[in-house]
Design goal:
The complex is a heterodimer of chains A (about 150) and B (about 270).
Chain A: H1 2-26, E1 37-44, E2 55-58, E3 61-71, E4 78-85, E5 95-100, E6 107-112, E7 125-126, E8 128-130, H2 135-149
Parallel strand pairs in A: 1-7, 2-6, 5-8
Antiparallel strand pairs in A: 1-4, 2-3, 3-4, 5-6
Chain B: H1 2-41, H2 46-56, H3 61-83, H4 92-130, H5 133-139, H6 144-182, H7 187-197, H8 200-228, H9 233-264
Helix pairs in contact in B: 1-6, 2-6, 3-4, 3-6, 4-6, 4-7, 4-8, 4-9, 6-8, 8-9
The chains are: A alpha/beta (about 150), B mainly alpha (about 270).
Amino acid sequence: MKNVEFAVGLFVVAGLLALAMLALKVGNVHVLGNGASYSVTADFTNIGSLKPEAPVTVAGVRVGQVAHIAVDPVSYRAVVTLNILDKYRFPIDSSASIVTAGLLGEQYISLDPGGSQRNLKNGDKIQVTQSAIILEQIISQLLYSKAGHS
Amino acid sequence: MSVIGWGIDVIRRLGQRAIDGVGRLGRATFFLGRVAPSLGLILGRFRLIVQQLYMTGVLTLIIILVSGAFVGMILALQGYNTLVRYDAQSSLGLLVALSLTRELGPVLAALLFAGRAGSALTAEIGLMKTTEQLAGMEMMAVDPLFRVVAPRFWAGWIAVPLLAMIFTAVGIIGAYVVAVGDLGLDGGVFWSQMQSGVSVTNDVLGGLIKSIVFGFVISWIAVFEGYDAKPTSEGVSRATTRTVVSSSLAILGLDFIMTAFMLRGL
C-alpha cells in the first residue's frame, strides 16, 4: 500500500507538472503579467491586420502590447492603444510603425525613439506614425505603373 | 407479401433497438443519480480512491508516455514535410503545440484510457457481479455503489485530465527532440513561436476542460456497463466491448460539440 500511494503521488505530481509546463513553457502566461504598464495612443491610416495583444517592440525587444483598437469617429483613422511596461520610458517624439514579421508573419508595432528630453507618459499620443504596408496595394500600384508604360 | 412482412420485421427490430438504447440511457442516468450521493461520501475514505488511481492512472502511464512521444514525433515529421514547402518550418513548434493541446492530447489520451482502463473497470465490476460479490456485499450491509463503484468512478475521472496533460507535454517534448535533434530546427525559434501562438486560456485550458468532460463520460460508461452487465461470461465480455465502443464514440461526438463551441464562442 505504501508503494501504491507513492506511485499515485508521483503520478499526480507528474500530471500537475505537465500542466504547469503547458501553461508556462508552451503558453505565454508570464509575458506581461508582471509589472505595471502605462498606455499611449497612436493614430494610423491603415493598421493592416494588426490585432489586440500584438507585441510592441523597440529595436526588436518586446516592451509592451496592443491593448485595443478603435476607429476615430471624426477623422476615420484607426486609434491604437498601446500598453508599455512602466520600466521603459521613451521620448515624446518617438515614432510608431506597423511592421510585419517576415513576409507572411504576424504584424506588430515597432517604436523608434526620438530625441526629445520629455518622455511619453500615460495618455499621451504618438504623433509620428507609419501605417501597415498592404502588399496587395503595392502589387496593384506596380501593375498599374507597368501598364502605364506599355 | 413476404417482402412486406420482411420490411415490417426490419422496422420492428429497428424500433426495438431504439427502445433498448433509450432504456439503457435512462438506466445509466438513474444509476448516476444513485451513485452521486456516495461520490461525496467516498472522499472521506480517500484511500479507496488512491488504490483505484493506481490501477487506472499509474498503470496507464506507460501507454500514454509511449504513444504521446510517438504522436509528437510523427506530428513533427509530418508537419515539417508540409511546412517546408512554404518555407514556414519555423512555425512547426506552434503547429505541434496547438494540435496537441487543443485536440490530440485530450482525445487520444481519452481513447487510450477507454481501451486500457475503462475496459478493465467494466470487466472487474462485471465479474464481481457475476461471481455474486456485489450481492454478497449487500448481504453484509455494505453498499457496493459506495465501496466498489464510487472509488472507481472518481479515480477514472481524476486520472483522465492528468493523463491528457502528460500526453500533451510528452508529445511536445517528442516533437522538440525530432525537430531540433533530427530536422535541425533552431530550438529557440521552436519554443518562441509556440509561446507567441498558444494562449493559456483558450488552448491549454480548453484542452483541460475537454479532458475533464471525457474523464467523466468514460468513468460513467465504464462503471455503468460493469454494473449493468448480464452476470454471465458472455455478458461481461459484451459489456467490456460496449464500454470501449460507446466511450470512444462519446469522446469523438462530445469533442466535436465542444470544439464547435470553443472555436465560435458561446
